[in-house]
Amino acid sequence: PYDVLVVGGGPAGASAAIYAARKGIRTGIVADRFGGQILDTAAIENFISVNRTEGPKLAANLEEHVKDYNVDVMNLQTAKRLEKKDLVEIELENGAVLKSKTVILSTGARWRNIGVPGEAEFRNKGVAYCPHCDGPLFEGKDIAVVGGGNSGVEAAIDLAGIVKHVTVLEYNSELKADSVLQERLRSLKNVTVITNAQTKEITGTNNVNGITYTDRVSGDEKHIELAGVFVQIGLVPNTDWLGNAVERNKFGEIIVDKRGATNVPGVFAAGDCTDSAYKQIIISMGSGATASLSAFDYLVRN
Ligand code: FAD
User: Fold this and answer.
1) CA of 31 to the centre of ligand 1 (A)
2) Are 227 and 141 in contact (CB under 8 A)?
3) Could you give the CA distance from residue 103 to residue 175 in angstroms, rounded to a whole number?
4) Which residue of 281, 282, 285, 290 sits with most ligand 1 atoms within 8 Å of its CB, as the best mutation to test the pocket?
5) Is 69 helix (H, G, I), strand (E, B) or coil?
6) Which of 93, 137, 188, 230 is most buried, by the most CB atoms less than 10 A from its CB?
7) What one-character-per-residue DSSP string does 174-195 give?
8) Cα–Cα distance for residue pair 168/215, rounded to 1 Å
9) How far apart (Å, rounded) are the C-alpha atoms in residues 264 and 256?
10) Which residues are in the FAD/NAD(P)-binding domain (predicted)?
């Protein structure tokens, strides 16, 4: 069996695998797509000490760093079941069952898409999902935020300090964000809120140039010219496959303590699949290191 088996090959998993391998223990990493979300990212400018890089380049760097160590890398493999017996068992889609004394779950998350024409086409060309990451790219420009929940309204408040103007488009008749956030939003002069707005299309040529929505009350179709659209309708953790094997919160995030431990002894978790406060590369890597050191500590004690 492995001493540490990491499930997920994004920043969190890569970091966990390296920290484990550096202890000289038997380490494996299973990933359905090594690199994770950063493979879909254009510029990365907030990975501290690296002024600017591109997602696919950082993913290649991660893989190279992991391969510097004695780690079994099982790429293009998807885990479908976890069971805690004497050891922890991970069953893969291909039917194989991997056994390990400890497991670190780092299966990440994915942004929920609106699913309208233009969204995929203009991804990284005006369509963005992360205000902390991409906000500065839209300095002085007009943008829209789709989604009026907490994350949408927080994004709009944040972006209003950087961009020229923010239009918030909410599908329902009112915003769902906490009232303090709504008050803060409404106090900002460069924000317009449009409710009952069903996004129909993100338009553009090479880059985004506007958004079209239907007013759900009048039925009229409207178009706004702008340079960017932030989609903020939810971040979904890749944890469905766990079922009830590990405790998760109502958003599906794996509940971890400050050491990255889950409710199951020997099972740890890190990164965007957990209930961590913020979802960023640098935070995922830190939590991967934490979970890995905790797994090592667990092995020493058991
Ligand atoms: P992920 O990167 O999601 O990796 C999850 C890994 O688990 C993948 O390898 C995946 O294939 C694998 N996996 C999932 N399910 C299974 C399964 N069942 N079995 C096996 N493997 C599985 N953050 C920043 O800090 N700066 C930025 O500029 C930035 N820009 C972003 C731009 C975009 C478009 C997106 C989508 C995200 C951006 N982020 C950015 C966020 C950042 O990418 C994430 O916070 C980070 O990748 C999370 O790392 P992770 O390892 O927890 O998960």
Assistant:
1) 11
2) yes
3) 40
4) 281
5) coil
6) 230
7) S--S-HHHHHHHHT-TTEEEE-
8) 13
9) 10
10) 2-287
Compute, in angstroms, the gap from residue 38 CA to the centroid of ligand 1. Answer: 6
Assign 42 a pLDDT band (cuts: 50, 70, 90).
Answer: confident
Position of tokens 């797509």?
A: 33
The residue to mutate among 6, 18, 30, 37, having the most atoms of ligand 1 within 8 angstroms of its beta carbon, is 37
Tell me, what's the ipTM?
Answer: 0.99
Q: In the structure, which protein residues have their CB atom closer than 6 angstroms to any atom of ligand 1?
A: 7-13, 30-34, 36-38, 40-41, 44, 46, 78-79, 106-109, 111, 129-130, 133, 238, 241, 271-272, 279-282, 284
Six-digit token string for 182: 């709504």
Q: Which of 270, 268, 261 is nearest to 288 (CA)?
A: 270
Cα gap 161→32, rounded to integer Å: 38
Identify which of 51, 76, 130 to mutate to test ligand 1's pocket (most ligand atoms within 8 A of the CB): 130
**Residue 266 corresponds to which tokens in the numbers above?**
């020997």
Three-class DSSP category at 93: coil
